[in-house]
Amino acid sequence: MRFLLHDSQAVYSATDKKWYFTLDRRIENPTHVRIGKCSFTAATASTYPAVVYMRSNALFELSAIKHTVELKSVNHHDSSNVIAVLHETHQKGRYSGGGLSFPVHGHTNHTIIDIYFTDGGTILDGAVSTTAQVTSSGEDADVLAIGADLICWTDLDFTRCFDANFVATTAIGDPVNYVYDRHNPDVIWALVYGNNMVLAQLGATNALYRAGSWQSIADSSIPAGTMQDEFQLHFLFQQNAINDYVMLFYFAAMKILMYQGSLSSQAGNTITALPGITIVPLQGYLVSVTRQLTNNVANFVYRVERLSDNSVQTSTSGDMGAVPTGNTVWRLGVPNTSFSQYQGPFIICNTTSTSHAAACQAWLRNTYAGTVVQAGEEEATTSEPASFFANLNIAQSQRGK
Description:
By secondary structure, this protein is mainly β. It has helices at 57-62, 140-144, 354-369, and strands at residues 2-6, 11-13, 18-22, 30-41, 51-55, 82-88, 94-97, 101-103, 112-119, 122-123, 150-154, 161-162, 175-176, 178-180, 188-191, 197-202, 205-209, 217-222, 231-238, 246-251, 254-259, 262-267, 270-273, 284-294, 297-306, 311-318, 328-332, 342-349, 387-396. It folds into two domains: 2-128 and 383-396, Jelly Rolls (Sandwich), CATH 2.60.120; 140-369, Sandwich (Jelly Rolls). The strands form five sheets. Strands 1, 2, 3, 4, 5, 6, 7, 8, 9, 10 and 29 form an eleven-stranded antiparallel sheet that branches. It has a six-stranded antiparallel sheet with strand order 11-28-19-24-25-26, covered by helices on one side. A five-stranded antiparallel sheet has the order 12-14-15-18-27, with no helix packed on it. The relative contact order is 0.20. Residues 130-134 and 376-381 have low confidence and may be disordered.
């Protein structure tokens, strides 16, 4: 007799993450079970295993032989309740495969059959989790979802970088005198010193670089209240020589620079190297800086990711200055330093949200790698629970019929 097991006919238990088929009577006189074609679609998740085990305690107890063991360092001779091994198909999160064939105890009285799926020994959730940490895909839409808290999103795209005559750039090496922000029309970065800057290549994206000495770029009309007491800055950069003295960001409430080979903060005239942070020249870095308040005292938390190997360093520093109450000037670079770094895209937002930070970091990481999905190009996706199907062939004796 062929029994078709479909998730729509089972009851899912969120407690133990298993599906249950409750029969109105036991299967009569079973002699042999063969697990035929099986398929499983995992619940929507950020990552998926390559192989999934289909398990059943009820069918395991029916078996008259030891049919499977899982090789492990302890108790590797113990029988396993794995009844099928499913491999990922051409589409992520979808699996198919065949199962086992084994004789069974005909006298066993089972009216409930359980089915569940695991990644090794970890049970896979059949429902979309409402508590799991969200991992941003790093698409344009993820940054836009920050909403009103997004202050500026300067991506240094060719179409937003202009020369002295407001002609858009088209290639690496083109002169840059003005940079328009992608998100905030009120943010326009303009050359302060020198004839122009130029565009450089930083990974797969663009970066600002000097075309002379003593250069900086600034917006001198940032309105009061734009930057709140708690905010985040996320940016890409590359240091080109170990001892280059470069000012990365010079805002009233935040001054981040490279000084004597160290990523540093500046409060007043005091420059302090960030402990635990090492910057290697000619390497791309993703830097996140968060200003947060604890009992009305400001401090900064740093996350520095080396993009060649995704290694992460962290550090902290004290307050660097009050958030201005009036209009202010934001600078990239200052007149007494040369713009010797490659300064890549950056995002600033009024939040300490870890999910917003993850979105910014993922977008910048993808930008560096050249894998960002542009706004309007995303495929429509929805969060779906898991589903499965199994073809169960049970041979039955005629005894007692």
